[in-house]
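thread: overnight batch results

M.L. [08:02]
morning all. the overnight job finished for the chain we discussed friday. pasting input first so we're all looking at the same thing
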Amino acid sequence: MHRIVVLLCALCLPAHAAPVLRARALGVPFDGTPGALNAITDVAGVTVGQVTLIEDLKDGRKVRTGVTAILPRGRDSLMLPVFGASFALNGNGEMTGTAWLEEGGQLEGPVLLTNTHSVGVVRDAAIAWRVRQGGADASGYFWSLPLVAETWDGHLNDVNGFHVRPEHADAALSGARPGPVAEGNVGGGTGMVCHEFKCGIGTASRVVRDGERSHTVGVLVQANYGLRDSLRIAGVPVGQHLREHRVYSQSNPGAGDTGSIIIVVATDAPLLPHQLKRLAKRAGMGLARMGSYAGNGSGDIFVAFSTANAEAVSGKPVSTATLLGNDKLDPLFAATVQATEEAIVNAMVAARDMEGNEGHSVRAIPHARLVELLKRYGRYAGAR
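M.L. [08:03]
and the structure it wrote out:
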């Protein structure tokens, strides 16, 4: 009975909640102008759903995992794709469906994030969910290649227990909503670690203006990469100062980067697939600002999509799409870099200490000491 109650409570955890503290509120300075929510859901139509699974089993195993779902057009994602593209900065990871995304240039349906050993069940569940929602044409829904991406949570989660089940993917998809997005130890990011601090889901956005027009770029990350030494926040070499409780390198100075990060970039700017590929590449530059070098063991895989040009992807035999000129892309490139950096820091700041499987524990980044370092290096923006 204890197990059932805990699992039901995990399923009831909200996908959306105003976080207690985000990086800007802590005084971390960032470039650019955020949207109203400073989240991927600032891109109109994008919805996010999350299911968080935290459970202590009677046999001693610990469940610390979940699912995050991003629907580019909300419920309309069932019938109307978006232009999209993917990019692997380092390919030691998995994002299903990218072969057809690269070939066809369209993202058909949601993007789901989970742990490494649950990609298959989430992929199959996503197809079954779409069939049940009636997302089929008159001939029937006979073909689907959904995008499901992963990072490895096996340090804290019983990853070989296969605790993510189809109903969890269903709940994340059905519960996707606009509005604020919960960050840190939630959804697919529940058991994740980055720079040897507790990490997880993070999000941010930027608004760019070109004369009277404005466009929004939103980013959501599932961060699970990096060692402590390389960590930089707002240009401050934080990892050189905060040396305690290093998960991998404390007892093994020769430890390598074996984590991963998935970055989802959304925009309402009218971009075609080849331009979205360029946008996806820039997410890697936001990651680099954090001190990542995309190590051999890290799966750093990104996807970008545009919610514009709905008519052009409606399935007509001939259609017309609009696009920004290449000389207008620089502000969007900068916005992607800025929002990616902030999303990762938000994931770290929102995360909390976690005890996990096999007695492992991971500490969250200490807020007071981070503020102290920001002040020491003249980078403190003041609490907001």
